[in-house]
Amino acid sequence: MDDYATKIKDSAEHLIRNEFPEKALELDTLCSSEALSFNEVSKIRAEVQLPTADDIIAHLTNNKNINSTDDHHHSISAKNNNNNGTKKSHKTDLIDNTIQSPVYVFNGTVPSNPLISILEDKLRPYILHFLDSVAVIKLWIQLMIPKVEDGNNFGVGVQEDSLAEVRTSETEVTQYIDLTCKYLISRGELIKKVVKYPHVEDYRRSVQSLDEKQFVSLRFIALELRNHYTSVHDILMKNLEKIKKPRSNQTHASLY
């Protein structure tokens, strides 16, 4: 168990000293890049490839021609098969009624917004890395907390405050995963509306607005992730010695 505790301590210090500042700088570069520039908003609002009112008209026209041909064939078939009985005639009537009630069927897949998907793929590794790293850092701080002794708990408050700060950051970053999931569900519901009512322009525009909103949210996530990496690194580095040796002196210790 001692070897495991040593491994956790070494891993946590490496994360704090090296990986966190590196990730913060990478995210700062990403936030300043063209991919997250507000100039990309016009591209985000690109028209979604979904059926339009013209598609419906073309479909109905084509269906009408098919119905006329089918009616002719059914008429000939009915004359040649009068001896099939009333059961056959009833079946033919059902087929005719079905053909004469055209329904638009959307064939193919509805793609996700490619630019949003690219940004999500770029940010997801940072979110997962942060959450995984924070789990190690929390355990490291807990391992550094000495046993409770009456009248000799100086410095432990710094460890507890540091742990609370890390947990707060963890809670906020966890919510970013839910944001992406909710966006996908909402977009899927809107896409269903567009497919069902392609002649209603507001549904089509609502998909574009939702994509734009998600782009702004992803930019916000990138900025906040950068800030979380930076703040956790800063607060733990400033209090590193107090976290590692909370009872090195008997003076009152407070969090920087």
From TrEMBL:
Biased composition (Polar residues): 77-86
Organism: Adineta steineri
UniProt KW Membrane keyword: no
Domain Proteasome activator PA28 N-terminal: 2-52
Function: Implicated in immunoproteasome assembly and required for efficient antigen processing. The PA28 activator complex enhances the generation of class I binding peptides by altering the cleavage pattern of the proteasome.
Keyword NADP tagged: no
Domain Proteasome activator PA28 C-terminal intervals: 110-252
A GO cellular-component term linked to this record: nucleoplasm
Protein name per the record: Proteasome activator complex subunit 3
MF GO annotations: endopeptidase activator activity
The family this protein is said to belong to: Belongs to the PA28 family.
Keywords: Proteasome
Annotated stretches, region: Disordered: 67-91
Pfam families: PA28_C, PA28_N
An annotated GO BP: regulation of G1/S transition of mitotic cell cycle
